[in-house]
Specification:
Layout lengths: L2 H22 L1 H21 L7 H19 L5 H27 L5 H26 L13 H22 L1
Length: 171
């Protein structure tokens, strides 16, 4: 087996691991992908800002930190997840503030600012919703109240049987 085949095989194993990881964590995978897209959009928009402008590098730095914090949200330990959530929210707020400054000063367009802000807020809502669902004591599934026709018939028969026995007990 030559070197290229070994590299491809190793890459396939990594992709399989990531694929199986994301299959079990679809909402997490969605959030990571959304954050990646956001960071990419930020890099594209800031590419038009002069390299001499310090805010360009600060926005980029915070966007990559946001991605890291988002990935850290997958930690199952409560304390580390709370820390990651706080870091994620702080970085989100910091990016919005830096983008607002850039917008007000004319460094980025109002349209780019509003699109980025909207996407950041959507990601924050998604992360907040996921965090609240993890902290819930009990969540009903979507189909909790659904019953099949067979279940309804069995339940009616049990109720009828209970009525018969309660009538006998009253006599």
């Amino acid at each position: 087996m030559d070197s290229d085949d070994k590299k491809e095989q190793g890459s396939n194993q990594k992709n399989h691991y990531l694929s199986s990881f994301f299959d079990h964590n679809r909402s997490f995978a969605f959030m990571v992908k959304k954050t990646e897209k956001l960071a990419s959009a930020i890099y594209l928009i800031t590419s038009f800002i002069s390299d001499n402008e310090p805010i360009k590098w600060k926005i980029r730095e915070v966007s990559t930190r946001l991605l890291s914090y988002g990935i850290n949200l997958s930690n199952q330990g409560h304390r580390s997840r709370v820390d990651a959530m706080n870091n994620f929210l702080s970085a989100s707020l910091e990016i919005i503030s830096l983008l607002e400054i850039s917008n007000i000063s004319g460094i980025i367009s109002p349209m780019n600012y509003s699109v980025l802000r909207f996407e950041i807020e959507k990601i924050v809502e998604l992360v907040d919703l996921k965090e609240r669902s993890l902290n819930s004591k009990f969540l009903l599934s979507k189909n909790f109240f659904e019953i099949t026709e067979g279940q309804a018939i069995i339940q009616n028969r049990q109720e009828d049987t209970n009525k018969v026995f309660s009538l006998k007990d009253n006599k």
